Amino acid sequence: MSELLDLTLAEARDRLHGRELSAAELTQAYIGAMEAARPLNAFITETADKAAEMATAADKRLAAGEGAAMTGIPIAVKDLFCTVGIQTTAGSHILEGFVPTYGSTVTNNLFGDGAVMLGKTNLDEFAMGSSTEHSHFGPGINPWRAEGSDADLVPGGSSGGSAAAVAAHAALGAIGTDTGGSIRQPASLCGIVGLKPTYGRCSRWGVVAFASSLDHPGPFGRTVRDAAILLGSMAGYDPKDSTSVDRPVHDYEAALTGSVKGMRIGVPKEYRTEGMPAEIEALWQQGIAWLKDAGAEVVDVSLPHTKHALAAYYIVAPAEASSNLARYDGVRYGLRVAAEGSGLTEMYEATRAAGFGAEVKRRVLIGTYVLSAGYYDAYYLKAQKVRTLIAWDFQNAFETVDALLTPTAPNDAFPLGDKLDDPLAMYFNDVFTVPADLAGVPAISVPAGLSGRGLPLGLQVIGKPFDEETVFKIAEVIEQAAGFTARPKEWWK
């Protein structure tokens, strides 16, 4: 069984379609791996029985010659995507026990292609966090450990459970959401590939909302090719989502030509932050050298408003969260806390006090404040203007370059609890990822090396809107040059 867990998604797909392997056999191997990985707390809800049922259906499709790219592929689903008949919690006590009667468009697309769901993965509550420590169901654990240490490390966040599951070979692929870096940052910290597509490329319908203008569903894979296959199944126009864009879904795998010859790659000088670790700078320089060796021209560019991105994000995102989370009031669904004889206001207060965690309360309070009378113009409106300037920065840069290369995160994985008492230090983990969310442009993280502590570090490729093909193409060249084959030691088994 263990050799099945070493297959990439692309290799497993080819064997399934060649009838060298059954979906049931592959799924059972991953069910065993998922159960063995329980010490990582990567999953909130395991769905082994459902997975076995889906695998049986996949084998029938494959036998009839009707299989799609994802048919029979066992994947993990961030517990932010609604799934029919299966608990969807958003990592929060306030939604614990909520069982949707409908599924998200993204999961429906995947399951329509025959993908097999292993379970729902852990996350920071309502996707608010960079470490998966803000989960009602306990922190997620990174499968990697620093050399010479037994300390548990964070897997990044908010999609840390999905990233940890893929890195631990407890899922062949996974889906998450990226609002400020919540796919790319955990991908970097866990040593896998994570893509944030262009805003509107993947439907948000049926995804529990954090910040509606910033939420991007996207894939995790162990290789760039795997991520490309996943995106091809996830993406598509959805009339139920008013922000979905009606554009054809390309064959992203076909874009992986292995060549970037003649491309112009920009290096934004503003991403050289004060106090950047030397090993992050060294990896960035190595990435530049790899692209030059592959025939690309690397040029310096300027994104002058980058320095304001983090501040703007932490006004816009909490403001939208304040609005979105107002629906959790104890009336229609989810948790209800009401003492006998209490009024409606008391029920609201008691339900939200018991149902929301500390980080969610912090962001709701910030968001409510910046939207309040007298502060809307000073904070929220100004942040939206800055956001427009950041988008213009990218637009101007892409007039002269095909894509941008930056680090993904300012550090490797850090110990549990290390930044919990310092929210600003935690928020700084998003410093390289937030600008692409504010602009809505596609970006991918690729594992490119190890830190001095033996932990993964990623490089980020940022592309033009709806040009995921170029992003994948450049990412694969970096992947091939890096030759990243390191794996975490399976200490949890």
Describe the secondary structure blueprint for this structure:
Blueprint (H helix, E strand, L loop, with lengths): L1 H4 L3 H9 L5 H14 L6 E4 L1 H16 L10 E5 L26 H8 L3 E6 L38 H8 L5 E6 L5 H7 L2 E4 L19 E6 L2 H11 L29 E5 L9 H16 L3 E5 L7 H16 L19 H12 L2 H14 L4 H22 L5 E5 L15 H5 L6 H6 L3 E8 L5 E8 L4 H15 L11
Parallel strand pairs: 2-3, 2-4, 7-8, 7-9
Antiparallel strand pairs: 1-3, 4-6, 5-6, 5-10, 9-11, 10-11
Structural overview:
The chain has 493 residues and is an alpha/beta fold. The protein has an eleven-stranded mixed sheet with strand order 1-3-2-4-6-5-10-11-9-7-8, sandwiched between helices. Helices cover 37% and strands 13% of the residues. Helix 3 (23-36) runs antiparallel to helix 4 (48-63). The model has no long low-confidence stretch (mean pLDDT 96). The chain is built from 16 helices and eleven strands. It has a single domain (1-493), classed as Amidase signature (AS) enzymes (Alpha-Beta Complex).
